[in-house]
Specification:
Blueprint lengths: L14 E5 L2 E9 L2 E5 L25 E7 L2 E9 L25 E2 L4 E2 L7 E6 L2 E5 L1 H5 L8 E3 L2 E4 L8 E9 L2 H13 L3 E9 L2 E10 L2 E7 L23 H13 L12 H14 L4 E3 L11 H17 L6 H11 L4 E3 L1
Parallel strand pairs: 4-10, 16-17
Antiparallel strand pairs: 1-2, 2-3, 4-5, 5-12, 6-7, 8-9, 11-13, 12-15, 13-14, 14-15
């Protein structure tokens, strides 16, 4: 029987196509069945020569309206500040034939499939009783926040607890005429955050807006009623309120050894990269050997653990950079082998 990576099982007639700005790898046959794999949004090319970065597309605004401060109204556009395109996503397949599963909308009363044109929105006001809400009804909601972000309060930009932050958006002027007023307000808000409301995605959000570089960044915030009190965590009741001074001193010394200027670009998604390697290996028909992750040792003597932490940091700082080359070379050689070990 041919191996998993033989031409009879992973055919050489691989077809590559670009759809909606993303490249899809279509395998002729994988383990005797058809399948597809969409590479993640990475900055390098994978083993098949495909760039994992889709063509650049300018972001589209999700909202247009006015930023209001007292009697000043500035036309603005709202853009998402984050994206999920870089995440690896999966489709649900039928295990027997590897065909993508369809999610059908079924009415149990009429015992038949229904189309989108037959579906309406309903609000259950009593058990088993609904009132139908049409799109025209929703459009009749005419609160100011559907068209205007009215900043009714300003505070120091450090006054907002990060636990309240939901999502981030960028604000930009809508049109050249608005650019001057936008720039003046941005400079005037230096060190401050404006608080207001915005109706977005079918609900009204509390928002905070502050300057960032050439524009303004807006955070949608959770309302106070949505935040769970830390007092509700029962496990915290057993945590002592006072600690031993000598232990606290050592803990601060350990923390100080890791202090440095923060640059979040230094951090990468290791889990996504590991998953990407597994997908590529399965496409190539390679055997996957998962590396064991050791359990962290239980801390019995805190003082001893803190001292060892300080010693290990000191040792690492004294170790020459060349000493790290050998393990890296071994890892590279192992990755070139047929059997792939994944972290």
């Amino acid at each position: 029987m041919p191996g998993a990576g033989s031409p009879s099982q992973v055919q050489r007639s691989q077809r590559f196509s670009a759809t909606a700005g993303t490249r899809t790898l279509r395998l002729g046959t994988l383990h005797g069945r058809t399948g597809t794999c969409a590479p993640a949004n990475q900055s390098t090319k994978n083993r098949f020569g495909l760039s994992d970065n889709p063509p650049y597309m300018a972001p589209r605004p999700t909202w247009k309206g006015y930023l209001k401060v007292s009697l000043v109204n500035i036309p603005v556009k709202v853009f998402p500040a984050t994206e999920s395109a870089a995440a690896i996503s999966f489709n649900q397949l039928h295990a027997e034939c590897q065909t993508r599963i369809q999610q059908k909308k079924w009415c149990p009363h009429c015992d038949r499939e229904v189309t989108n044109a037959e579906i309406v929105k309903g609000y259950e006001f009593e058990k088993g009783r609904w009132v139908v809400v049409e799109d025209d009804d929703i459009q009749k909601v005419r609160v100011e926040s559907t068209r205007v972000i009215d900043l009714v309060q300003f505070t120091d930009d450090t006054a907002i607890d990060p636990i309240y932050v939901d999502r981030a958006y960028y604000l930009a002027p809508d049109g050249g005429v608005a650019a001057d007023a936008f720039a003046v307000m941005r400079e005037g808000m230096a060190g401050k955050a404006g608080i207001g409301k915005l109706a977005l995605y079918g609900r009204e959000y509390l928002v905070a807006i502050r300057p960032q570089k050439k524009g303004l960044v807006m955070y949608t915030l959770h309302h106070d009623a949505e935040i769970r009190s830390i007092e509700t965590i029962e496990e915290l009741n057993s945590v002592p309120t006072k600690v031993r001074p000598e232990e606290m001193k050592l803990a601060r010394q350990v923390i100080a050894t890791f202090e440095s200027e923060l640059n979040l670009k230094d951090y990468k998604d290791d889990y996504k990269e590991g998953l990407r390697k597994i997908i590529d290996a399965k496409i190539a028909g390679e055997e996957i050997v998962a590396a064991e992750v050791p359990e962290p040792p239980r801390v019995v003597d805190l003082m001893e653990a803190l001292r060892r932490s300080l010693d290990s940091v000191s040792t690492e700082k004294k170790t020459p950079a060349k000493a790290k080359i050998a393990p890296a070379a071994k890892a590279k050689a192992a990755a070139n082998g047929k059997k792939r070990k994944t972290a």
